Amino acid sequence: MHIVIPDDYQNVIRTLDCFTTLADHRVSLYHDAVDDVQVLAKRFADADALVLTRERTRIDEALLARLPNLKLISQTGKVSNHLDVEACTRHGVAVMEGRGSPIAPAELTWALIMNARRQLFPAMQAMYAGQWQVNMGQRLAGQTLGIWGYGKIGQRLARYAQAFEMPVLVWGSEASRQAAVADGHQAAPSREAFFASADVISLHLRLAAATRHLVIAADLALMKPSALLVNTSRAELIAPGALLEALNKGRPGFAALDVFEQEPLNDPDHPLLRHPGVLCTPHLGYVEREGYELYFGDAFANVRAFFAGEDCVLANPQVRTQR
């Protein structure tokens, strides 16, 4: 069996403990980012299975039409907008999902909050350049952490905030707000109050049709000049251009970002990378060894189970009638 794994940017998948479970199969790994359909079709031409690294490669009708040998797509984590499940079904390609974990993304989010608030990155850059104490940051204690989306990551973040003596203010669905209150936090009385009151706002929403471009310029304009916006979820939650425009107008004064509309972001002159109030990381939220063992361990187990003829849970069970 030929298994193809694209987008192994860091060239680390072979180093995972779970990779040994594929020892009896032919495995091809690619370490670059490619969106050219012709190149992808050539790489995937004789693949029996693809193991996708989260949402890095887009699989659509145009590509699937050129992959008649493909039988399975094993997704690390959950399926998202990068994968056209209906097109997979039309082409007789089964799709299997894995699990995710809130631990690494929550920890990365907190690291960004601490780094941005204490202004560590510019202070460290200056020190390595021979300068000493060039700026002054802010402590977290007493600042209000606003969380939009009180799911597994948001809840974990709220617990971190409690340890740092930060009041937590939650916005989102009615169920999210009720859960936050039950946990001893505050629910914002309105969307406007949420943006206007919080000192730090962190977005933790799934990207879907209802949440795409949900945060607009009017929301950001309500934030304090001293406020920090953190986005480790999806760049598309914010309307195109709205964040950079808001930062240039001074509300909010700061942002910490792990996600971007175009990834990989390889342009060192990108305005977000050049903005003095913005701290950026290259989508590291889930990029952590234990998380990778979970993601790829599930994905590899799903491949083995599928081709062994075991009873598998498919994201597109309709494909069974076509096989």
The ordered string of helix (H) and strand (E) elements is EEHEHEHEHHEHEHEHEHEHEHEH
Strand order of the largest sheet: 8-7-6-9-10-11-12
- Tell me the major beta sheet: 7 strands, parallel
Q: Helix content range of the residues, please?
A: 25-40%
Number of separate structural domains: 2
What proportion of the residues form beta strands (DSSP E)? 5-15%
Q: What's the tally of helices?
A: 12
Number of strands: 12
| Architecture (CATH level 2) name of the largest domain | 3-Layer(aba) Sandwich
* The CATH topology of the largest domain: Rossmann fold
Distance between the termini: 18 Å
Q: In CATH, what is the class of the largest domain?
A: Alpha Beta
Q: What is the assigned CATH homologous superfamily of the largest domain?
A: NAD(P)-binding Rossmann-like Domain
Structural class: alpha/beta
Radius of gyration from the alpha-carbon trace, in angstroms: 22 Å
- Low-confidence segments, given as residue ranges, are none
Shape: globular
Q: Mean of the pLDDT scores?
A: 97
GO molecular function, one term: NAD binding
Domain D-isomer specific 2-hydroxyacid dehydrogenase NAD-binding: 111-285
Keywords: NAD, Oxidoreductase
EC number: 1.1.1.95
